[in-house]
Write a structure and sequence with these properties.
By secondary structure, this protein is α/β, with parallel strands linked by helices. About 45% of the residues lie in helices and about 15% in strands. The mean pLDDT is about 95.
Length: about 425
């Protein structure tokens, strides 16, 4: 394919080199004549393993060239990939003016072009940037978005020092295109890269890179705080974290990475408090660990706000054990939510078949009688009775018996789902998801 790459910094130079190596015709574009001259002489504008050899080969076989002329680049390419910087502003926001400036330049050239053209943002940008870029290009070029041109987010996952390897062996390729034609062009562009391709909404694609990088920062900070505690206790922190990382079933897996309601149960809250206490006794600061329960409490508040914002007073709770398939109510965030609603004068009814059975004969019978008798008295034996008498239904755990509950709830009742009982369901109409 014929592509133009705007910005010959780190991401742009690596992208030029690797797309050229894949056999595409690449035009690199930069305002710096020095960078352009370096590329055209087979040199790399940055230090990166194997990069110069790739550029030298690409220039030598005519697959790579660099220019300062935007007009030439757009005219002679099907796809323009923007790789310019997005620096931080003093308030922490990202500065997108380089992105918008390049989009404006490309838009001016698209005025003169008859064939379809795709504009792709590879830089790290906030959700909504692609939509804004489409509006800018449409306004300046007087061309129709998704008819005469398309826009897309295509984030990169390159680490300095291993960028060439990472480009060729990415964890996945993310395409967030505004239209099918642009999506198909990008699929063709990456056809030679052996990695799964995920086609998402542009805003989802834009959010992926931010989420990845914040997750990496979270993991580093977590390991450092654990390491600090370990050192003061005379424990080898590397050995601890090495073993933690070997658990691919829970620790390094998708299992706990699903947005939803707060955590609870007999282990997590207790053990977070226990480790925080030990760190304080060692005179250590653990800001990340300290934030866990605060963030968890906020998720309960968020669920409470969703209920109170409906303006309705009759609330039914479907499932309030801390997780499906159990009657365990110890530190259940749903119990906290129910108690808050009772305290605010809401008319509550509750259904949980496991807890109801436990109330009669289970191991939690004494706990229920001693700790939540006020909630126990609100329990109904049949789910249908709770649905019938409530104006708002809150789904509190993902018990299999709730799989078809959405179809049982009339449209005049509000549904607040804290667990995403049906995959792919998003907030719409009378259905409200806490994180979706």
């Amino acid at each position: 394919m014929r592509i133009s790459i705007f910005g010959l910094g780190y991401v742009g130079a690596v992208s030029c080199a690797c797309f050229g190596k894949e056999g595409h015709d690449v035009i690199g574009v930069d305002v710096s004549e020095h960078k352009v001259d370096l590329i055209n002489s087979g040199k790399s504008p940055i230090i990166e393993a194997d990069l110069e050899a790739y550029i030298e080969e690409g220039v030598g076989n005519g697959k790579i060239k660099a220019v300062t002329d935007c007009s030439y680049a757009v005219e002679n390419s099907e796809i323009s990939i923007i790789c310019v910087g997005t620096p931080s502003q003093l308030n922490g926001n990202i500065d997108l003016h380089y992105i918008y400036n390049v989009c404006s330049e490309i838009a001016g050239e698209l005025k003169k072009k008859d064939s379809f053209h795709s504009v792709v943002i590879r830089s790290t940008v906030a959700p909504g940037t692609i939509r804004q870029c489409g509006e800018i290009i449409e306004d300046i070029s007087q061309k129709k978005l998704n008819v005469d041109f398309g826009v897309a987010s295509n984030p990169e996952f390159l680490r300095e020092g291993t960028a060439i390897h990472d480009f060729i062996n990415p964890p996945y390729t993310i395409i967030g295109a505004s239209c099918q034609q642009t999506e198909d062009q990008l699929k063709e562009l990456y056809a030679g890269i052996d990695a799964p391709v995920y086609c998402l909404k542009p805003e989802e694609s834009e959010m992926i890179k931010y989420t990845n990088n914040n997750f990496h920062a979270l993991k580093i900070t977590f390991a450092n705080e654990i390491g600090n505690i370990c050192k003061e206790l005379g424990v080898d922190g590397h050995q601890v974290m090495d073993i933690v990382a070997k658990d691919k079933k829970l620790n390094l897996s998708p299992y706990y990475l699903k947005p939803g309601f707060a955590f609870g149960g007999s282990c997590l809250p207790k053990d977070v408090r226990g480790l925080k206490y030990r760190a304080r006794m060692l005179d250590l600061k653990t800001p990340l660990l300290d934030s866990l329960l605060e963030s968890n409490d906020y998720q309960v508040e968020r669920g409470l706000q969703m209920v109170t914002s409906t303006g309705k007073k009759k609330v039914g709770i479907l499932g309030f054990a801390f997780k499906a398939g159990t009657d365990d109510l110890r530190e259940s965030p749903m119990v906290t939510l129910i108690e808050a609603l009772i305290g605010k004068g809401y008319d509550i009814s509750v259904y949980d078949s496991n807890v109801y059975l436990s109330k009669l004969l289970g191991k939690n019978k004494d706990f229920i009688a001693a700790h939540i008798p006020h909630i126990s008295r609100l329990m109904e034996e049949k789910m249908e009775d709770v649905i019938a008498r409530s104006e708002v239904l809150v789904i509190g755990n993902n018990s299999p018996e709730f799989n078809d509950v959405l179809s049982m709830i009339p449209e005049d009742k509000v549904i607040i789902d804290l667990v995403r009982i049906q995959k792919e369901k998003t907030s719409e109409g009378n259905y409200k998801g806490i994180c979706w």
